[in-house]
Amino acid sequence: MNKKTIEDIDLRGKRVLMRVDYNVPLDENGNITDDARIRETLPTIAYIQSQEATLILMAHFGRPKGQVVESMRLAPVAQRLAEFVDGNVTTVSDSVGPEVEAAVKDLRSGDVLLLENLRFHAEEEANDADFARQLAGYGDVYVNDAFGAAHRAHASTEGVARIMHERGAPCVAGLLMARELDFLGQLLTAPARPFVAILGGVKVSDKIGVIENLLPKVDTLLIGGAMSYAFAEAKGYEVGESYFKAEDAPVAARLLSLAQSGGYNMRVPVDILVADRDAEDAQTTVVPFDAIPADKMGMDIGPGTIADYSTIIENAKTVLWNGPMGRFEVTPFANGTRSIAQAVGRATTNGALTVIGGGDSAAAVKQMGLDSQMSHVSTGGGASLEFLEGQELPGVAILDDK
Ligand code: ADP
Ligand code: MG
Q1: Ligand 1: which residues within 6 Å by Cβ?
Q2: What b/e sequence results for 324-363 when a residue is b if at least 16 CB atoms lie within 10 Å of its CB, and e otherwise?
């Protein structure tokens, strides 16, 4: 990682303005159902507090579209944060303005102030310079620990850092950001071999950039999940009632010919678990990949594919996995995703570096209780994809180089 982190600069007594990703899932009663994004930032917060600095946190929540939406206030997040953090955690009713200025002035060493949802101002997503300048005024140092928001050039992820740079203020990565960049960076630079990537999930078009960038870098690329059917269609096979978008077939065809002309090893499933419908009590059967019945829907990879893929994964020294192997949210279709997660877990035990990217994939391994068996489960869905496409993320590019 070539970016400076909070450990590379002097924070003592400083006002630290830090972007975090606290866009946590809530249930219908407004209770936080998964506080991982909050907990993941605790080491960074504790480190900053240990430097006798004051901490001003910036975060967004949901899509209020530039309006104050009461149900999207950050109060529940602040409450949960306060349960974990030593010292004062306070909130304000806005992210800029006189109340914020006063609250910032009142901060003592070790105090934490969480600014209100940045997206109550349309200026946040518009990366408005005046809004960014107001935010920048609250800190002596800028820290970005929001990997999951780093692919967006918003005021809090890019504009603020730009302005603080002009002032000569340090702009650095938090510990979570640094960990994300370290693990994901290792995949793209000199990965231990064999390097195996597993790509699944819904749409080929969303992940084409990742596949194109990874194909020349990996030893084997394994395709699973609903994107398999685009490849089936491209090969001229029946896809039946499987999840399939017509625009994905030419994309898959292009990837197949890219793999062939480059001599790259890309595998598609050998068999598929098909169902009569998408339900807990569905009737399922296993069919060859090229023989999906016209009246059935492909819901998971089959046992032959699980066996093939598992062997390849267990012998790998580097594994990247993005996208579930099937519709794992429904019990009869979870076996492929669970089995592949277990194989990746065994690869970790065998000494491989294993990284999970993608929001639903991370949710799947957590739901299956297998997240602790992975070297790293990325907190950034879209951000990890853009990183793996080889793009420089604006929220990372703006940070100080080492
Ligand atoms: P990620 O968030 O990890 O990048 P995606 O968003 O691309 O993954 O895809 C996740 C979704 O793909 C899951 O909700 C899962 O149910 C769905 N999925 C995977 N395989 C299938 C399938 N065969 N049929 C329908 N949906 C599928
Ligand atoms: Mg997803």
Answers
A1: 200-202, 225-226, 243, 298-299, 322-324, 326-329, 358-361, 381
A2: bbbbbebebbbbbbbbbbbbbbebbeeebbbbbbbbbbbb
